[in-house]
């Protein structure tokens, strides 16, 4: 290509008109028109200016034998053009659906956390002779039944709502581009929700602290009080706190997914894809361990301690696994 053709090529890649290019260079539109038609040649200073403006070398502009060069800005644009484009309508539909399902997802998680409460309570009452009509076997059977029912309900809710969001799963796995104006509107909605998000996190943390206080004050002195009162109360407080965490976090996370920020940048998406196997496998193993130990020891109202320990270990293992994948990139 000759110089004029290269100027046309680069200008159109930027989607500029002759007037816009002329404005960038501080010249008239007629000058640009003459360059592109070959009627005149730019001065050296204008060649240098266009080199900086388009992100190409002066050799590329001046030497006809250099037919193609891939400037960074052009490569970025070509990569962006190959990505899925998300319109305002699609982004709004995703955010609205997430808001509708957030409470259901939070309720499903809460059911799983709350599931052992009835078992712990009945087990404590029967063990310490406070439930005259409830034998240990009956307490274990009823408590286990309620536990499994709540877990089944929680899992069913999580699965069904996860399937509703399946069409937007690409936002967690693939890079995409937002059409004009989408980012600004999503950022505004995120700002509007920010106050609610902060309140939910604050209240959730407070509930968790309040919930553990009776166990620290009274549970260490009397095992009966700990089993029958403090532990069930702790789980109830934690359940409400986690509900707020999940509900607010799910909605706030939907904004980050659309904007591809925070935990949803391209780098984080690649790491999450590689570590996706870990969460499912880990919690299946923990559930099997919990049920196995509880059945073997016949001590369901104490084996619940496996869950908070497993939660702490999960966070540590996941962090180590993610860091190892980042180093391998």
Binned strand content: under 5%
Tally of strands: 2
Helical run tally: 15
Terminal Cα span: 38 Å
- SSE-based structural type: mainly alpha
Widest sheet, order of strands:
1-2
Instruction: Provide the succession of SSEs.
Output: HHHHHHEHHHHEHHHHH
Major sheet: 2 strands, parallel
Poorly predicted regions: 72-81
Shape assignment: elongated
Radius of gyration: 30 Å
**Helical amount:** over 70%
> Mean of the pLDDT scores?
80
Record the SSE blueprint.
Elements: H1 3-13, H2 18-25, H3 29-37, H4 44-54, H5 58-62, H6 72-82, E1 84-86, H7 88-114, H8 117-127, H9 136-164, H10 170-173, E2 176-178, H11 182-219, H12 223-259, H13 266-297, H14 300-303, H15 306-328
Parallel strand pairs: 1-2
Describe the structure.
This protein is an all-alpha fold and 329 residues long. Helix 8 (117-127) packs antiparallel against helix 12. The chain is elongated and about 105 Å long. It has 15 helices and 2 strands. The protein has helices at residues 3-13, 18-25, 29-37, 44-54, 58-62, 72-82, 88-114, 117-127, 136-164, 170-173, 182-219, 223-259, 266-297, 300-303, 306-328, and strands at 84-86, 176-178. A two-stranded parallel sheet has the order 1-2. The chain is 79% helix and 2% strand. The two termini are 38 Å apart.
């Amino acid at each position: 290509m000759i110089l004029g053709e290269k100027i046309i090529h680069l200008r159109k890649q930027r989607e500029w008109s002759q007037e816009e290019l002329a404005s960038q260079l501080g010249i008239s539109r007629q000058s640009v028109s003459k360059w592109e038609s070959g009627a005149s040649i730019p001065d050296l200073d204008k060649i240098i200016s266009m080199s900086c403006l388009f992100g190409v070398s002066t050799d590329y502009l001046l030497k006809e034998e250099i037919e193609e060069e891939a400037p960074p800005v052009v490569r970025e644009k070509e990569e962006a053009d190959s990505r899925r484009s998300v319109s305002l309508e699609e982004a709004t539909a995703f955010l609205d659906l997430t808001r509708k399902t957030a409470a259901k997802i939070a309720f499903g998680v809460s059911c799983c956390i709350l599931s052992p409460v009835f078992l712990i309570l009945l087990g404590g009452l029967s063990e310490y002779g406070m439930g005259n009509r409830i034998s240990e076997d009956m307490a274990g059977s009823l408590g286990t039944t309620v536990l499994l029912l709540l877990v089944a309900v929680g899992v069913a809710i999580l699965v069904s709502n996860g399937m509703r969001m399946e069409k937007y799963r690409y936002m967690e796995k693939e890079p995409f581009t937002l059409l004009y104006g989408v980012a600004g509107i999503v950022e505004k909605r995120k700002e509007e929700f920010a106050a609610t998000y902060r309140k939910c996190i604050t209240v959730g943390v407070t509930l968790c602290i309040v919930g553990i206080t009776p166990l620290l004050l009274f549970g260490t002195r009397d095992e009966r009080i700990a089993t029958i009162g403090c532990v069930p109360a702790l789980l109830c407080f934690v359940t409400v706190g986690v509900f707020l965490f999940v509900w607010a976090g799910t909605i706030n996370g939907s904004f980050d997914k659309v904007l591809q920020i925070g935990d949803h940048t391209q780098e984080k998406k690649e790491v999450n894809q590689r570590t996706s196997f870990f969460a499912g496998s880990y919690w299946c193993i923990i559930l099997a361990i919990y049920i196995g130990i509880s059945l073997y020891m016949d001590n369901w109202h104490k084996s619940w301690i496996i869950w908070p320990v497993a939660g702490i270990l999960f966070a540590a293992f996941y962090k180590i696994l993610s860091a190892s994948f980042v180093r391998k990139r």
